[in-house]
Write a structure and sequence with these properties.
With 139 residues, this protein is an alpha+beta fold. Helix content is 31%, strand content 24%.
Length: 139
């Protein structure tokens, strides 16, 4: 604070306090209050005068724009699909023919149900059956 202003504040405080003491001859109970009010008033007045004579410089707020984080683009690894080599099966020259073959069928028991509901088990002996099969014939 400037030296002149300090001197002024002290003089103002003393003058206010002196005024409060000068008027105390009738009011013994209000002396402390008057002194306090005088000091407070002097302080407020001095503060107002000081603020009027010493304006505070305007300081503009600093605007800090956030810097965005760098965008990292990572390309995915290429997908490599290896196709297996085609399998080419060379069929020998020829064609299918339907042939009749005699096939041996083992003997077995056969269960038959009669119209009365009873089960009759009979033995069927082994025998040959003729069956048609597909056979690859080469020339």
């Amino acid at each position: 604070m400037n030296k002149i202003i300090k001197v002024f504040l002290i003089a103002l405080t003393v003058a206010t306090t002196s005024t409060a003491f000068a008027h105390h001859h009738h009011h013994h109970r209000g002396t402390g209050f008057a002194i306090g009010a005088g000091i407070l008033g002097a302080g407020l007045l001095a503060s107002t005068i000081y603020d009027a004579t010493h304006p505070r410089p305007y300081v503009a707020p600093v605007v800090v724009a956030p810097t965005p984080a760098p965008v990292v683009v990572q390309q995915p690894a290429p997908v490599v699909v290896q196709q297996p080599a085609p399998v080419v099966v060379q069929q020998p020259a020829g064609h299918y023919e339907t042939q009749v073959q005699n096939v041996w069928v083992e003997g077995q028991y056969i269960d038959q149900t009669t119209p009365q509901g009873t089960v009759v088990r009979t033995w069927q002996p082994g025998h040959y059956e003729q069956r048609q099969t597909q056979v690859w014939v080469t020339p």
